[in-house]
Amino acid sequence: MTAPFRCGFVAVVGRPNVGKSTLTNALIGSKISIVSRKAQTTRHRIHGVLTRDNEQFVFVDTPGFQTRHGGAMNRMMNRVVTQALAEVDVTVHVVEAGKWSAGDEQLLPLLPKGGNTILVVNKVDALKSKNDMFAYVSKIMALHPYSAVVPVSALRGIQLENLLQEIAARLPESEPMFEVDTLTDRPMRFIAAELIREKIFRLVGDELPYGCTVIIEQWDENESGARIAACVVVERETHKPILLGTGGAHMKRIASEARQDMVKLLEKPVFLDVYIKVRKGWSDRESALRELGYE
Predict the structure, then answer these.
(1) Distance (Å, rounded) from C-alpha 215 to C-alpha 190?
(2) Does 67 have pLDDT greater than 80?
(3) pTM here?
(4) Judging by DSSP bridges, how do beta strands 55-61 and 148-151 pair with one another?
(5) Which of 118, 195, 219, 263 has the most crowded CB, counting CB atoms within 10 A?
(6) Of residues 269, 248, 167, 265, the one with CA closest to residue 203
């Protein structure tokens, strides 16, 4: 007898910097969510799709839940997390092995109380002994009725198949929502903008505040290649020299590395032009956030 097909939405949630985007990308097998060591990298709710013989997982990679609620950006990101938790079939709560903070604690009341919440302990390779793991997990399990615990290393691919099996067992029986070869419901323009933002955070993340986003202003594509113009929006004039670097070296590297990723993504030559605009205070105004494509 053929096993029934299962399909559903899976929220990947957790405080900033626990490895949610790395985990989502590793499970799907493709970079649909940008990865950086800097917290708050993910700002949007991104759907990534993995289809197997009898299952289709629609992963919702959310921003890290923010414990500082002062700005419009933080309020928007927390709203995205809350909405995602209300709309999914399975919740994956990601924590970092051996670490527990106020950010982890404050997310607990938002987690569903039913039997479809899985605790994922990421970066298990950082713990020295099984006794450390047992004590750490026991403390968290006493705080919330998780239905399963799966220790993983998203970066090293440890236990990812076990996690997929635990998720699949909790998905509802349903026909697939997407075609077999679909990786994300986000358009290529969005992914391209995210790739540029990833390079910015990786290269100048320690120097550049969070008031930085990327807008694709031109996208001309045909069989022979793509011509893309991207605008990096910053909040202050003082941010421009940080992005440019000496003699424009930073911006050249950002554009070069992003273009290489886009070539792999589109499987054709790409001409990429990246420039900078200043828009004061955009990240603290909800109207500006909506204009720039934030949910």
Answers:
(1) 8
(2) no
(3) 0.68
(4) unpaired
(5) 195
(6) 248
